[in-house]
Amino acid sequence: MSMRKLALYGALLLLTVAAPFLFPAYQTQLATLWLMIIVALTWDMTGGQMGYNSLGNIFFYGTGMYVGAVITITLYFPLAEYTDASRSETFTFTPEMYFTGMVLGTLGAGLFCALSAYAIGPLFFGLRGPYFAIGTLGLAIAAGEIVSNIDILGGGQGISMPVYGGDFEVFKKIIYYVFAAMGVVLIVFLSWFYQTRFGKAINAIRDDEEKAEAMGIHTLRYKLVTWAISAFFVGMAGSISAFQLIHFEPLETAYQTINLGIFMVVCVLLGGKGTLWGPVIGAILFHVFKEVTWNYLLGWQWVALGALIVVIVVFFQDGLMGWLRHRKPEWFGIRVESREARASA
Amino acid sequence: MDNIWFNIGLLLEYPIVNLKIIIDGVMIGALFALAAYGLALVWGVMNVKNLAQGDFVIAGGYVSWTLAQMGVYPLLGVPLAFVIMWGLGWVIYKTVITRVIERDLFTSLLATFGLAIMMAQIMNLIFGSDTQSVDMHWPTWRLGELGIIELPAAKVVGVVMAAILAIGVVLFMKKSRMGQAIRATAQDSRAARVLGIDTEKVYAFTFALNAAICGAAGAIIVMIWVIQPFYGITYSVRAFVIVTAAGLGNLPGVIAAGLGIGAAEQYGAHIFGIGYQQAIAVVLLLVVLFYRLMRQRRLRQVLQ
């Protein structure tokens, strides 16, 4: 790695660490930004790098929320009493109980999501192209509808998480740093992962699955592992979101098919599919655009969002990185022979 | 768990309840089949999977509801919704769909998903999130012991209108020049172009026709049930279930699957409780997808 690149990454890391102190009023926003980056990067693992466009990755986010909450609560209290809507007693968590629950719940949520991705993968990866997208969308919608009918999980009301007893400012910083650490780990992991033989293999699956299979790649195994890794991170992010939001309910928060579930796809398309930094840049642009314009649109924000999706998909599908690659191929190590050079050769 | 067994027991003990459920299911299913036929049409002709299908249905319902508020006789709302949604479909084709036809399938899926969000939100802003319906003030017939089978006249008229619309569309596709051009384009768009068919015009016509069929279905739905801006996605999902189960260009299959899913949903709602009705529609989609997958696997083994 060259010195310049090293300095750039160092500066970015420093900015990440210092951000909540530089912009104390926007700490929650910054935490949500990291959440967007995480879900966009994990979506791109299967969507951009492996060619399986899922519309249902939000399933792992919602499941992560519920698993994290259930683990945290059942460590100390019976779940049925805790989620009973008519309960009168209050359940208090000491800081020690709170953080034990957060760590174990989040790890458990990640593992559960990874395992469930591995388990349901053989069914879903048989579906190709748009059928995969529709099937995964169906999975997310069905999960939300079913969970909202299960009383022990709070039914349609959802679950209220334990509340952090200490200072609220400290709480916001904790959430930010957990999300940021997860995001940085994910970026470092992916920059290594895409360089390995494994990364090349999933790219081969995207480019031509039949040929990849003929080359001796056990495609299903590669697809399962990639989906499981992506689900691991989304599940953990979901669990942390549950702690951040304090209260969540199944249809609008946990399995929010049309909010975060579609945002992650839009972020990736905006930034550029199949690149490492595209989803990150896309998530930043999208989140900033959304937060800046949201309050001025007076109720029309969701319409504007739908229009934005249509415009990005129809006119700007290669994304920022794709556009850059087209304009400045030498930045990406692509050599383009000019017409004169080819003519003289 | 106990009340599930109780509900199943109820079905076995009183067979007439089954009849009631099936009649209800068939009435709903007829309207699902209409939306699904439109989806199959667009899917087959221009290879666009329209996730905004359900929102066209709901939009048609709101057109008819608005007209009824303005004093138009509700039955007239059906042809008027057909015409107005035709126009909307044409506009959407010219602005968005025409640009995604040639692209990969995920593009059209995502673009129509964006459209679905837009339409649902616009309807929410204009009409509010309350459920709406048009009251026909028609009698309800009761049949069977204790009048257990309710047969509202509005539902019967709705099903008859759906049937008339379906027959009209089928005759149009079979007999008219435009219908023949549409079918030719579905078979091979390049050959159709070579033979002098303006495929761009055919695409626009097909998409507008689809929106119109959905709009008319929505105008019927608003007479016999309720509509709400965010109900669209479940109609889209049902349309996808039906088309995936029946296959493209298989009209009897679409009708059978539509009636089947209507009945299945009613049975599910009866056995598991009304809260599961949406979940059942979506789970049926997954079941149908995986069933197709298994069948293809078997086919693959035979080829090997």
Question: What's a quick, concise take on this entry?
Answer:
Chain A has about 350 residues and is mainly alpha-helical.
Largest sheet of chain A: 2 strands, antiparallel
Distance between the termini of chain B: 45 Å
Task: Please report the two chains with the greatest interface, counting residues with C-beta closer than 8 angstroms to the partner's C-beta.
Answer: A-B, 37 and 41 residues
| Amount of beta strand of chain A | under 5%
Overall CATH class of chain B:
Mainly Alpha
Largest sheet of chain B: 2 strands, antiparallel
Describe this structure in words.
- The complex is a heterodimer of chains A (345) and B (304).
- By secondary structure, chain A is an all-alpha fold.
- Chain A has one domain (22-344).
- Chain A has 16 helices and 2 strands.
- Chain A starts with a helix and ends with a helix.
- The mean pLDDT of chain A is 86.
- Chain B is mainly α.
- Chain B has a single domain, classed as Orthogonal Bundle (ABC transporter involved in vitamin B12 uptake, BtuC), CATH 1.10.3470.
- Chain B contains 12 helices and 2 strands.
- In chain B, strands 1-2 form a two-stranded antiparallel sheet.
- In chain B, a hairpin with a 5-residue loop joins strand 1 (140-143) and strand 2.
- In chain B, helix 2 packs parallel to helix 6 (153-175), helix 2 (15-46) packs antiparallel against helix 9 and helix 10 packs across helix 11.
- Chains A and B meet through helix 6, helix 12 and helix 14 of A and helix 4, helix 5, helix 10 and helix 12 of B.
